[in-house]
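During the no-cost extension, the postdoctoral fellow (Dr. R.K.) reprocessed legacy sequence entries with the updated structure-token encoder. One reprocessed record is reproduced below for audit purposes.
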Amino acid sequence: MGSLKRRIRIDRHELAGSFGDIGTDFPLIAGMILAGGLDAASVLIMFGVMQVLTGLLYGLPMPAQPLKAVAVLVIAGGVTPEVLYGGGLAIGLAMLLLTLTGLVGWLDRRIPKAVVRGIQVGLGLKLAELALGDYVQAAGFEGYLLAAVCFTLVLALAGSRRLPAALPVIALGVVYGLLSNPGAAGFGSAFGFALPQPRVPSAGHVVEGFLVLGLAQLPLSLGNSLFATRQLAADLFGREMGVRKIALTYSAMNLVNPFLSGVPTCHGSGGMAGHYAFGARTGGAPLIYGTLYLGLGLFLSRGFDQVVHLFPLPVLGVILLFEGLALARLVRDMTGDAFQLGLVLLVALCALALPYGFLVGLVAGTAVHYAGRGRAWLGDPR
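Re-encoded structure tokens follow.
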């Protein structure tokens, strides 16, 4: 029982920390549902289930997130639901193959820590850029004002054990959403019970999904979902978590989701950093967070277009900004070595500025590391 309490805690800090990744997740999920014509109940319920199972399995604020590259392609248009679900299954199979062959572990042992830090910093900068460039200015002057108030609240309540910052920020966002979008107040009229819709992706859609979505997503998944997440778990919690376990749960989620119309999901260092930054320390945070999505999907999915307004983009942008900053500050342990710091910045800039930047940064940074240090490729860089 004591072990369970250490792994799963339900209190105001876990509640506050549970919202630490909503700035990334909710806009992507909403965008895919609305742009891709997806069944809202299925997407929300399965996303909630993955959060709950992840929290129970890891006993840490390990996130389940929508696959970012996949989400961007779906929101941009042209990806049918059939291709999306086929692609999710293809990604799950590809990750399972990489895991069972041992290739994931082999890569993890040979990619330098500075390269992983560069991926984390690059992702942090991308999140900050998205927060400031898109989310905060989404509502014009009112959005800037709302974001400024929320930003001030987070700074004023940083480290508070009595009132975790995310709680008043989310509450303020909901109040603003109700006042600025009168239709949102009537979402209760859309109450109704729903369950996920079963489906079986065809072989043709699995192949097409791999070519359209999988090739764009897998490099990002290797760098951020696996290697950077493993490193962050060690940094924040002192947990030496095997990358093979992370890869297996990543794979399992995507072997299940497509058959119940759930969007492809992954783990990620950004989500873990966001949960931690706002107070989460156990699997209670994803458990609470998943329950929110389960409730929306089971009972309120018919009014999803109204529920969306309860989470204004400027508020999500502030949360996303602090998630990005939490990742970027991890560079501190590289500042004592000019070569390693330069390598971090090289990888981060590649990730931030180049097409397929995470893959380019991963390959280029690793090559520069071994060339610069003169170490044998088969040696352990750590």
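Confidence is low (pLDDT under 50) at residues 375-379. Residues 203-237 form the longest helix (35 residues). The remaining legacy entries will be reprocessed before the final report is submitted.
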